């Protein structure tokens, strides 16, 4: 599957990754899994530029399992977006991630939030997924890579850690910085995201 991007390619691109988990695996805590996953990603064609602290966040949706540990990281890479996503899925599989039920308990969740200023496959497709009502989000998932992540602007557990490391990154569709998107989240939701 080929994705067409609406940006000028350069040798290196900054990619933004959300990390999370709420289930231990083989005696490894979620903290250990997140730290090890960053180390695995920081190799070869991906170089870690910055990472946030870890945060305790309420499980989403409520009642789907234990609370999460979340973080964000910025990598520099020459890989195309599809290869970055493939690499994230490879690292998830090392930690036993299985994609059986949407928004279920998970040992490791790695989401590609943004790839420079790329919009993929195009803005209308991005907007369709960004505007998808919550009740449909539980049943429907894209069959291709959507960039930026179509739900990042709605999620305090993504924006709070990301604002720590990339507050000035500007959303290529909405034109808002991470700091501005985080500030738009209700204060009571942001307050639930606690540094560990």
From TrEMBL:
Keyword Amino-acid biosynthesis carried by entry: no
InterPro entries linked: Hppk (IPR000550), Hppk_sf (IPR035907)
Record key words, sorted: ATP-binding, Folate biosynthesis, Kinase, Nucleotide-binding, Transferase
Domain 7,8-dihydro-6-hydroxymethylpterin-pyrophosphokinase: 16-167
Pathway assignment: Cofactor biosynthesis; tetrahydrofolate biosynthesis; 2-amino-4-hydroxy-6-hydroxymethyl-7,8-dihydropteridine diphosphate from 7,8-dihydroneopterin triphosphate: step 4/4
Enzyme class: transferase
GO biological process, one term: tetrahydrofolate biosynthetic process
CDD domains associated with the record: HPPK (cd00483)
Enzyme Commission number(s) from the entry: 2.7.6.3
One MF annotation (Gene Ontology) recorded for this entry: kinase activity
UniProt KW Iron-sulfur keyword: no
Functional note: Catalyzes the transfer of pyrophosphate from adenosine triphosphate (ATP) to 6-hydroxymethyl-7,8-dihydropterin, an enzymatic step in folate biosynthesis pathway.
UniProt family annotation: Belongs to the HPPK family.
PANTHER family, sorted: 2-AMINO-4-HYDROXY-6-HYDROXYMETHYLDIHYDROPTERIDINE PYROPHOSPHOKINASE
UniProt-listed NCBIfam families: folK
Annotated protein name in UniProt: 2-amino-4-hydroxy-6-hydroxymethyldihydropteridine pyrophosphokinase
């Amino acid at each position: 599957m080929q994705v067409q991007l609406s940006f000028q390619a350069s040798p290196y691109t900054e990619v933004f990754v959300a990390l999370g988990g709420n289930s231990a695996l083989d005696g490894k805590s979620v903290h250990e899994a997140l730290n090890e996953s960053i180390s695995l990603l920081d190799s070869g064609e991906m170089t870690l530029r910055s990472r946030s602290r870890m945060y305790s966040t309420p499980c989403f949706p409520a009642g789907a399992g234990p609370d999460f540990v979340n973080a964000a990281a910025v990598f520099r890479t020459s890989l195309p977006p599809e290869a970055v996503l493939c690499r994230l899925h490879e690292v998830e599989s090392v930690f036993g991630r299985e994609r059986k039920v949407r928004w279920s308990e998970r040992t490791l969740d790695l989401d590609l939030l943004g790839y420079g200023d790329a919009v993929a496959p195009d803005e209308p497709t991005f907007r369709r997924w960004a505007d998808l009502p919550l009740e449909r989000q539980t049943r429907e998932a894209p069959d291709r890579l959507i960039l930026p992540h179509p739900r990042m602007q709605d999620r305090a557990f993504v924006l709070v850690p990301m604002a720590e490391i990339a507050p000035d990154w500007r959303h290529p569709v909405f034109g808002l910085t991470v700091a501005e998107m985080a500030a738009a989240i209700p204060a009571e939701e942001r307050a639930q995201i606690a540094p560990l």
